[in-house]
Amino acid sequence: MKNTDSNLKGIIRDYDLNRWSVRIGYAAAYLLGILFLVICFFPLIWTMLSGFKEIKEFVLGTKILPEEMRLSSYFHTWETLSFARYYINSGVSVGGSVLCAVFFNGLLGFVLSRVRPAGHKVVYALVMWGLLIPATTSIVPLFLNILKLHLTESFLPLWLSMGANAFYTVLFKNFFDSLPKPLIESARIDGASEFRIFRSIAVPLSQAVIMVVVLYSINAAWSDFLLPFLLLQNTPLETVMVKLFSWMRGSKFNDVQIIRAIVFSIIPPITLFALFQKQITQVKLQAGIKG
């Protein structure tokens, strides 16, 4: 028997295309989608193509396409700007941020969901209130506390700030709410501590929400600028975004070299989205949050 499941998906079925009005609407929707696609991708394509141009060709700006596609120009800029060093710095920052985002937010989400000590409702209310407060409003007291603790010129404040994220805590808490209660209770009867339950039961069953938090924290840590700028500027630990800002303010490098540097800075987020777009765009489904 022929499987007709594919014909039942979507709002337009095969026999609907027999009508001219549906065909015209279908074609118009496709053209509109292509138009939006071109508008969204044009700045990215223009930036990458501009990196192949020489400074004179770029300043004239008569053509979008470069006269010659020279990959050597990108390699030269990579070596001139010592980009590998700042990639390593950003990698260290991202790696620590991801570990803190998963461990600390996951642990707090587990405590609020399954341990539920006295006052857990108050703590959860404060976490929810934290979602309403813009991060930039707390940057001044946060920076002053970092200064008092002598933690400047270090990645540690960046890691810990990612480990105190209200959004990630809510994701973990809602996911842990869906874990089988008898499984948790049986582990407690067997004498397992709460941390062991978190480590041996909750974490292995939470691969979906962990993947979501990892993807979001990688993107956030790589793109973060304000706090790394305040802590790491003019130090050997400058990240890609901080150094890119310094290059743009200076006059040592021309505009084409800056554009090539911008291309290098956006390659990791684009690659991340291309590989894991399903998990990113379906965060609610992956994290198990009920709509």
Question: What are the main properties of this structure?
Answer:
MetI-like fold, flat, 291 residues, single chain, 15 helices, mainly alpha, 2 domains
CATH class of the largest domain, named Mainly Alpha
Tell me the series of helices and strands, N- to C-terminal: HHHHHHHHHHHHHHH
What is the second-level CATH architecture of the largest domain? Orthogonal Bundle
Helix-residue proportion: over 70%
CATH topology of the largest domain: MetI-like fold
Going by CATH, the homologous superfamily of the largest domain would be MetI-like
In DSSP terms (H or I, runs of 4 or more residues), the helix count works out at: 15
Structural class, from helix and strand content?
mainly alpha
> What is the β-strand count?
0
Please compute the radius of gyration using only Cα atoms.
Answer: 25 Å
Distance between the termini: 37 Å
Percent of sequence in beta strands: under 5%
Give the biggest sheet: none
How would you explain this protein's 3D organization?
The protein is an all-alpha fold and 291 residues long. It folds into two domains: 5-50; 78-287, MetI-like (MetI-like fold, Orthogonal Bundle), CATH 1.10.3720.10. Helices cover 70% and strands 0% of the residues. It contains 15 helices and no strands. Helix 11 runs antiparallel to helix 14 (255-281) and helix 13 packs antiparallel against helix 14. The protein is flat, with a radius of gyration of 25 Å.
What's the SSE blueprint?
Blueprint: H1 20-50, H2 55-60, H3 71-80, H4 83-115, H5 120-130, H6 139-148, H7 156-162, H8 166-177, H9 181-189, H10 194-202, H11 207-223, H12 226-232, H13 240-249, H14 255-281, H15 283-287
Helix pairs in contact: 4-7, 4-8, 4-11, 11-14, 13-14
